[in-house]
Amino acid sequence: MIWVRFRTLVTGVLIVGWRTRVRSALTLLALAVGAASVVGFLAVDEGTKAELHRRVDTLGTDLIVVRPAAGAVLTIEDAGALLDQEAGPDIALVAPEVVVRRTIAFDDFAADVLVLGTTPEYLAMRDLEMAGGRFLVDRDVLATAPVAVLGPGAINQIFPRALQRNQSFLLDRRTFAAVGRLKSPLGTANAEIENAAIVPITTVLFRLADEPARGLGFPLRAISIQATAADTVDEAVEQIASILERRRGRADFVIETQEGLAAQFRDVGDVFRALFGALAIASLVAAGVGVTNVMLASLAERRVEVGVRKAVGARGLDIARQFVGEAVVLAVLGGALGAGVGWWTAGELDRFTVADQSFAIIVRGYVPLAAIGATAIVGLLFGAYPAYRAARTDAGEALL
Amino acid sequence: MPRGPVIRLEGVGRTFDGASSPAVADVTFDVQPGEMVALIGPSGAGKTTLFGMLACLDRPTVGRYELLGVDAGIANEKERASLRNRRIGLLFGEPRMAPHLSLQHNVELPLEYGAGKRYRVRARDALARVGLEALHRARPGDVGPAERRLAAVARALIMNPHVLLADEPVGGLDAVAGLRVLAHLQRQNIERGLTMFIATQAAEVAVLCSRVIAIEGGRVVADERVPGRRLATSSLAAALGKGSAFASAGSETNQ
Questions:
Q1: Chain B partners of A311 at a C-beta cutoff of 8 Å?
Q2: Alpha-helical runs (H) found in A230-315
Q3: Which helix (H) or strand (E) holds B196?
Q4: For chains A and B, what is the number of CB pairs under 8 angstroms?
Q5: pLDDT per position as a tens digit, B196-211
Q6: Coil, helix or strand at residue B222
Q7: Can you list the alpha helix ranges (DSSP code H) found in B169-239?
Q8: Is the CB of A316 inside 8 Å of chain B's CB atoms?
Q9: Residue-range domain boundaries for chain A
Q10: pLDDT for position A2
Q11: What is the pLDDT of residue A351?
């Protein structure tokens, strides 16, 4: 007989489970927590990886964003200073951003949307694509032109039917021309412009901005900067810092790199991985001790059975297989329970947010199997000692 | 069945760790196919020690033990497990049933380590032959001692062994129940020629055998053939008050 007879295995597990029901239940619980933690660990791991991949894919690693520190104001003149080729040789493109909320309207439709004022460079820097028409051009900026590029969501809200090229509509009760529309999907990093109207930055500064902030002193939300290459990002960051500090006399701004954001993101991911990992290891070890305990108790009760089995022809190896098999079945029962609960929970949660970082929870098909596999290994390892003891049982002593 | 003796012992002895004198010493005898041998002696004489060695549950410390031509005393664990599985049927002083398993599952156990096929059918057959087919689902604790013992007989015989080794096969049973078990065993010997070796203190068991070996202090003190042995069925009939009291059977000719 190559493997343990199925009926023997099932009967054995039922006997163990019933005879040590409290201990077995606790062991199953620990196994379930362990398996669920393995699911959690792998789900966060996959989610973090996918999220990082997507962000870096969308924005590239050469994007740098400068934001004002709390209470400070960056203006378009600060952005202009960054274009100094001598002080900032590794700065390739600069796109200042200002935002206001305004109403857009067409026909009977109206929507309150984000109006983003920026420059033509923004398109390439954010890896955006046009679905039709054109993006902003330098002439629009110089002329404070009443033109707008619309996000797919904004279009749906006020143009339920087809949008004509250069269709005029109202933005803040002024007539604007819709010169282009952005292509969907925009990607998570560009989620905010799904429902936005993008206009020349000068149009916001001189036409849309409220008094008294209207004009060149209007506060920027951020300045997007592209370095000359991915490996000159560090130099560009230094140059940005030195230019702005010299101009402003103090470092009242924050410079974010994608690498830095990714690292921050990874750090939060690491914390969760460590948490789930520690929980998984702790509960699986506890479960393992439970498995050993339960199987030893079972052996103590079943000395006669083991003796009889040996007397009718079982080798030590047969007995060991039976006991290891029972331990593995027990472990896999707990593991399947935990993997099921973990899988269901992960499916319900979808994603979660910690420290301003939103994590996708991704449970791939292999994840529950891996969790069950982990518990099976626990059964194998921690069932080995009781199995060894069982195999060594002296049939003569047990029976005669 | 191979030619030659089923059991051959040559100067077999067993000394336990820490004991000054051997529990069994210098035992030499053969058991031929078809014999039904009683090993008698007072308690502590070494019957169970000898039984353990014959059953391949223990090994002699000196001497040579051949079972069906195999040197079982020095065979490795795998070979000895195979001998226990295919060549020997074992009956213990207690029926030794796994308490958590049904009678049928208990009877099936040898099949798990032999050619395990058609468990259910073979186990039911074996139980039917001892008259327990109705009790196959019962646990050992749910049936009486005689039924437990008969189930143990069914288990011992399910692999069609060459020799049945028994240690006090009717210990703890009342006279009638004991005779039922013995009648079954004796029928196996007489009708099928199954070789048997029975360690017992009970004279009523010994009189059913064709040969009696007496042991005392670990040594063989007598070894005699029994010319006319009694039939267990007759004794049973007598015990139940039917038929003649001592139907002596000079009747291995019955075979």
A1: 55, 57, 84, 90, 92, 96
A2: 233-248, 258-301, 303-311
A3: strand B195-200
A4: 86
A5: 999 999 888 888 999 9
A6: strand
A7: 175-192, 203-206, 232-239
A8: yes
A9: 6-56+263-399, 73-251
A10: 46
A11: 66
Yes or no, beta carbons of B81 and A396 under 8 Å apart: no
- Domain ranges in chain B are 1-87+164-177+188-228, 92-160
**Would you say the pTM of this structure is higher than 0.95?**
no
CA distance A320 to chain B (A): 13
Cα–Cα nearest to A97, from A193, A207, A195, A231: A193
3-state secondary structure of B199: strand
Segment A273-300 mean pLDDT? 92
Answer whether residue A350 shows pLDDT above 80. no
- Check pLDDT > 60 for residue B247: no
Under a CB-based contact definition with an 8 Å cutoff, are residues B134 and B150 in contact?
Answer: no
B232: Cβ–Cβ under 8 A, 6 or more apart, which residues?
A: B179, B182, B183, B185, B186, B187, B208
Is residue A125 within 8 A of residue A224, CB to CB? The reply is yes
Output the CA–CA distances (angstroms, integers) from residue B42 to A133, B47, B207, B218, B229, in the order listed.
Answer: 112, 9, 16, 10, 22
Q: How confident is the model at residue A254 (pLDDT cuts 50, 70, 90)?
A: very high
Query: Chain A residues with CB inside 8 Å of B109's CB?
Result: 308-309, 312
Q: Supply the CATH classification number for the domain B1-87+164-177+188-228.
A: 3.40.50.300
A286 near A30, Cβ under 8 Å?
yes
Q: Measured between alpha carbons, how far is A305 from A320 in angstroms, rounded to an integer?
A: 13
User: A226: exposed, middle or buried (C-beta count within 10 Å: 0-12, 13-18, 19+)?
Assistant: buried
Q: Using alpha carbons, select from A395, A388, A359, A282 the residue that is nearest to residue A52.
A: A359
Q: What percent of chain A has pLDDT over 70?
A: 95
Q: Is A293 on the interface with B (CB under 8 A)?
A: no
Rounded Cα distance, A324 and A224, in Å: 61
The answer to whether A258 and A56 are in contact (CB under 8 A) is yes
A172 contacts chain B (CB < 8 A): no
Residue with tokens 């399910």: B158
What pLDDT shows up at residue B64? Answer: 95
> Phi/psi of residue B27, each to 5°?
-95, 125
Higher-pLDDT residue of A124, A349: A124
What is the rounded average pLDDT of the residues A213-224?
Answer: 91
Q: Give Cβ neighbours of residue B219 (< 8 Å, ≥ 6 apart).
A: B24, B25, B26, B27, B46
Please report the residues numbered 1 through 40 in chain B whose beta carbons come closer than 8 angstroms to any beta carbon of chain A: none
